[in-house]
Amino acid sequence: MGRFYRHLYHQVTAWDNLLLAWRKARKGKRGQPPAARFEQNVGERLLVLQQELSSKTYRPGPYVNFTIHEPKKRLISAAPFRDRVVHHALCNVIEPLFERRFIHDSYANRVGKGTHKALDRAQSFARGHAYVLTCDIRQFFPAIDHAILLDTIQQVIVDPDVLWLCRTILHSGEGVLDAEYEMVYFPGDDLFAACRPRGLPIGNLTSQFWANVYLNPLDHFIKRELKCRGYVRYVDDFLLFADDKRLLWQWRQAIIDFLSNRRLTLHENRCHPRPVTEGIPFLGFILFPHHRRLKNRKGFAFRRRFRNMLAEYEAGRLPLDAITASVQGWVNHVRYGQTYGLRRELLSSHLIIPPQP
Predict the structure, then answer these.
(1) Any idea what DSSP says for residue 207?
(2) What is the pTM of this model?
């Protein structure tokens, strides 16, 4: 195993891997100018990228930052297209090595998993247990500590060249989320703790993958040490199920202590045991043992977005197929809850008539 993980960098920089990485990076983005410019001379650009990676002269470019407000306010940092190709090239090689170490019930950013399977799994646990502990981590992406993350990666990857690339990508996002982070001091910290490099840019493929790497020890702690059979995690939102409320209170404190060692904190005011029959807020829905409802704010948010899209369409600034794609995506998501009445009321009241020539 050590030999296999020790000689990986040639796989990252291999031409076939870079070609595959480019194809993944352009998926759904071929109409965007950065992807289109890269594709104009893709062979030469990939060759330059390969030479830079092989000689370790590769340097990531600056991020483009913008803020979204749905489902909540977040700062999104978009890397240049060529850097996204590198992110895919790295993940193509190292992600399978970590994937076999992830537990079954981690559902975010993994092939064959996803939101709806996480909801199904959580609801199945709700039917078999009386209580649930709902947890989410404060300022998760801004709080991720670089030193702890690199140490976790090095427990699997020992190839120095791959580690160099990991550090290069990681350091490129240093400081991007500083304004989003409210300093937390942990036992043993001094004043220099505020200077520790931290934060993963939301929007990077590597950030999504490294988020799972960072919390994988938590998953194993909950499964192996706490011996919790009913456990589901999606990024930094996770649920623990049990039939004993006192046991869940004990697990809550154990999780707080464990996360402290990874320089993370829970939203403690929202983290408390509750009967599953009260409804479990999770991934935009309220789950009950035998049905689920869409959160009210999710319905209101789409109403607002839908009205804005219609206004843009009537002004001639948005094509009809863009609205159709957005509505179909939303319907495909919310149909997993009791939303038939909402969908009928919202969509039947807005008939889109194509403008006459």
Answers:
(1) H
(2) 0.87
